[in-house]
Specification:
Elements lengths: L2 H8 L13 H12 L10 E6 L2 H16 L4 H8 L11 E8 L5 H18 L3 E4 L12 H7 L6 E10 L21
The chain binds flavin mononucleotide (FMN).
């Protein structure tokens, strides 16, 4: 199979990581893949914040769960109330993807960058998981505190995050794809 298609199809969300930190060369490849994503009007409206500090990741986990407990979704509330649940699954690295609020389509630009990073990670054997939960922190009362603490530039909104680390578990098989999601006009 074509290597790119193979990596797209075999990528799965990984939710158990080894504590060993990923190599900086690996991190740089993943970040570069994010930077090469398409963006509306080529605005490249993203900013990436790499966090490799366990204390800060644990703290952000606690605040994400606090925000999740009062979020209007039963599943997220349930997860957030689970003491054992960790927002980043104890991954040694997380990247927060923030978008410039006054650009054309920052949420979409950042999602494209996020997906590129996930596929790049898969291509070099690194486990990854898209983490949307943490974005709740940046819509709540602690938003300013964390934006400052994490050096997220003024005017940028954190939309997505990626947890990265060596896989502690094997990738599972992909869920069956929903049917009838394509139509053709020829
Ligand atoms: C926008 C978005 C937000 C997500 N947020 C989370 C999250 O906070 N925590 C998590 O464990 N997975 C999160 N995921 C991963 C999905 O749960 C996962 O992609 C989906 O279940 C399909 O599984 P797969 O990635 O293994 O194919 C998110 C995915 C997307 C696209």
């Amino acid at each position: 199979m074509n290597e790119t298609i193979g990596n797209i199809k075999s990528r799965r969300s990984i939710r158990a990581f080894k504590q060993e930190q990923i190599k900086d060369e690996e991190l740089q490849l993943i970040l570069e893949a994010g930077l090469y994503a398409p963006s509306a009007h080529n605005q490249q409206s993203w900013h990436f914040t790499v966090i490799q500090n366990k204390e800060i990741l644990d703290d952000l986990n606690e605040s994400s769960k606090e925000a999740g407990k009062i979020f209007n979704d039963k599943y997220i509330q349930q997860l957030s109330n689970n003491e054992k649940f960790h927002t980043f699954y104890h991954a040694p690295t997380a990247v927060i993807i923030s978008g410039k609020k006054d650009s054309l389509m920052p949420f979409a630009d950042c999602a494209a960058a996020t997906q590129n990073m996930l596929v790049a990670a898969q291509s070099i054997g690194i486990g990854s998981c898209w983490i949307g939960l943490v974005s709740l922190v940046f819509n709540g009362e602690k938003a300013k505190k964390y934006q400052d603490k994490l050096g997220i530039p003024e005017g940028y909104q954190p939309y997505h995050a990626v947890a990265l680390g060596y896989k502690k578990v094997k990738s599972t098989k992909a869920f069956a794809r929903k049917e009838n999601t394509v139509n053709y006009i020829r």
